[in-house]
Specification:
By secondary structure, the protein is α+β, with helices and mostly antiparallel strands. It contains eight helices and 13 strands.
Length: 398
Amino acid sequence: MPMRSCRRTGAGVPHLQMAGSAAMSGGIDRRGYGRSPSSRGGSSAQSSARRPNELPPVYLGPPAAPSARTGMMHSSSAPHLHTSNQTTANINSLSHAHVRRQQGPSEAPPKAVWSDSCSHLGSSVLNPWPAHAVPIWSFHGRDRPRPGYKEEIQFQITDEVYINHALRMRCGTGDHYMGGGVGLVHSPDRSEAIAGTRGQLVMITDIIVQPSGVVIVKCLGDLEFDVLKSWIPRGLRGLHMAFIEAVNGPPRLDSILQTIASEPSMSIFSRMVNAVPEIVEVVSGQGPFTVFVPSNESFANMGVSEDELLQSPDLQAIVACHICPGKHKITCEAMYSGRTLRTVDGTVLQMTFTRWPRGGPCVNQVPCEHLDVVCSNGVVHTIMGMLDSSPAPNRRRL
């Protein structure tokens, strides 16, 4: 019979000491005994017969417990594992990638105003109320944010109720990405917004949370409204909700003369313009004009009274160097450091920014206080000082 060897399975193989150099013809069974030919189907006569030099097997006891390090990885017959630094094969990859660098700054997302989302319902008897309620932010004290139509402003909120609502809108609980529509009302005595309260809609475009807990809100001005019904729902920590009735259309913009006459901080410059008929005739035109208006506070800081300004022989030149005609009105977005403008009398004005990239705007080194007061025939910017008239050579003044 041919000799059969044990298979290597990776587990502990029981050892069997043989009494001779030759192994049993029957091999080794699981228990370590020599397996006789009868176990492979032979006859009893064959099993009782032994070869002349064959010795019986010696029993060595139960087999040893298998080692914990088992498997082909720890087998001596397994190939050795080596770390390969070659390029990984059979992986899909991009071999021809052309990189094109972007030229200039990226384009800013377009701004949109959320104006009366229920205007499609009309004013039918079946739908006397808007379909959706509007959150109400109530301000107390002397004043509140009052942006003009489509005017962008920012303010801070510190009340926990409005901070909680602002965080909800930042996380997507609004009708606009990073914000939503909110109604602003003014209540000096901290009372709730009852029916008949007048407010203004704003569209919140960005919410900035400071480490101190203060939240900066950026918004666009929208339409005015009247409160029809208000209540405080559960789960919003005291925030007011209201059904409102917005005005029929956007407010009509006033002209430059009407705007500076109606604003209390521009009253002195308004009287200076009206004192010069030639300037009134120019500014009453279609435009557009870009007007830099010194505020009343700037005149007080310079120690110049209103009577001295109105009686000055150079009043016409003083007013003319603050008015810039052109094909386009120069808003804040159109300003950049080094841009020059030419006034009515030929004076050259240059825009600069004291902080990069667009912080601290100045015109001829005079700081700007409030930008982009939009008018029907131009735009007005308030400044914290007066500009000097210095027309170009051979340029006749008005």
